[in-house]
Amino acid sequence: MKKPRKIIIDTDPGQDDAVAILLALASPEIDVLGITAVAGNVPLELTQKNARKICELAGRPDVAVYAGASRPLLRPLVTAEYVHGKTGLDGPDLPEPQMPLRDMHAVDFIIESLLSHETEEITLCALGPLTNLALAMARAPGIVPRIREIVLMGGGCFEGGNVTPAAEFNIYVDPHAASRVFDSGVPVTMFPLDVTHKALTTRKRLEAFRALGNRAGRATAELLDFYERFDEAKYGTDGGPLHDPNVIAWLLQPEIYRGRQINVEVETASELTMGMTVADWWGVTDRPKNVFFVRDLDADAFFDLLLARIGTL
Ligand code: RIB
Ligand code: CA
């Protein structure tokens, strides 16, 4: 087997973040160097606790978890308890974490990891607002060429937005951070609503997680039972979109995805379209093609992968 791919997961758990973390920790092809929490779905004191709860659910209290930014670069924090519940992990009754939170700040951990590893050895997997990544780049510009790839869930084009008509939540919460990351020159692979809205947690798929019979499978079903109810009501679909695990699935089975290398810029001036990812899908500008924009997936293969891996925890 090839050497495991070294990653840092930056996250705002969040039920879908939790499933992404479970997938990563259940996959020997991946070496999770650390998990950095950021404020997003719920405030930082909850996202850092939730990240530790999920590591313990995966049987991995050894994973290094760090707390990062408690608010966006410039804008006030916007949270999403209406989707994720007041704890950010509503659904299963997960015990308070016993594993410690590491003392180092998440941004320092990202910087030190990139400076202490070979160039292009580490992939940053961003599942929430991009505040930690932007701060790391600003504090230590020398890390930028050392990053192998940034794989992120965020943005949208043909699907519009989910927190405003124009903007997806992760980008909307910190559009200035997102703009710095998209313009950084680091290879960015983007999982927007255009692809995640095709990955629905249907009743049949949820029952399959429950039928796994293990604690992680049952917890996944309970997490998604709670998490999908808002989007099911909003979109009138059987199940809701499962966003963040696509970032990890890309590292494991890129062949189940289809996309295009295009230019993507982030709106940071207009309040009306704040946080909009302006994606030049049809190549009508000569702006640099800075992003691999994923638009389609084999949803059955995606859920089969999730089931197979979470079933091993
Ligand atoms: O818009 C969906 C994204 O916002 C997901 O990452 C979800 O966890 C929230 O962070
Ligand atoms: Ca998230």
Just give the CATH class: Alpha Beta
CATH architecture: Alpha-Beta Complex
At the fold tier of CATH, the topology name is Inosine-uridine Nucleoside N-ribohydrolase, Chain A
Bound molecules: alpha-D-ribofuranose, calcium ion
Largest sheet: 8 strands, mixed
Would you count the extended β strands for me? 10
Measured as a percent range, the helix fraction is 25-40%
**Corresponding CATH superfamily:** Ribonucleoside hydrolase-like
Figure out the total of helices.
12
Topology:
Blueprint: E1 5-11, H1 15-25, E2 30-37, H2 44-57, E3 65-67, H3 81-84, H4 106-116, E4 122-126, H5 131-139, E5 147-153, H6 169-173, H7 175-182, E6 188-191, H8 193-196, H9 203-210, H10 215-235, H11 245-252, E7 257-262, E8 264-266, E9 277-279, E10 291-297, H12 299-310
Parallel strand pairs: 1-2, 1-4, 2-3, 4-5, 5-6, 6-10
Antiparallel strand pairs: 7-10, 8-9
Helix pairs in contact: 1-2, 1-10, 1-11, 4-5, 5-7, 9-10
3D structure, described in words:
The chain has 313 residues and is α/β, with parallel strands linked by helices. It has a single domain, classed as Ribonucleoside hydrolase-like (Inosine-uridine Nucleoside N-ribohydrolase, Chain A, Alpha-Beta Complex), CATH 3.90.245. The protein has helices at 15-25, 44-57, 81-84, 106-116, 131-139, 169-173, 175-182, 193-196, 203-210, 215-235, 245-252, 299-310; strands spanning 5-11, 30-37, 65-67, 122-126, 147-153, 188-191, 257-262, 264-266, 277-279, 291-297. The protein has an 8-stranded mixed β-sheet with strand order 3-2-1-4-5-6-10-7, with helices on both faces. Helix 1 packs parallel to helix 2 (44-57), helix 1 packs antiparallel against helix 10 (215-235) and helix 5 crosses helix 7. It is globular and about 50 Å long. The model has no long low-confidence stretch (mean pLDDT 97). The structure holds alpha-D-ribofuranose (RIB) and calcium ion. Calcium ion binds at residues 12, 14, 16-17, 41, 127-128, 244.
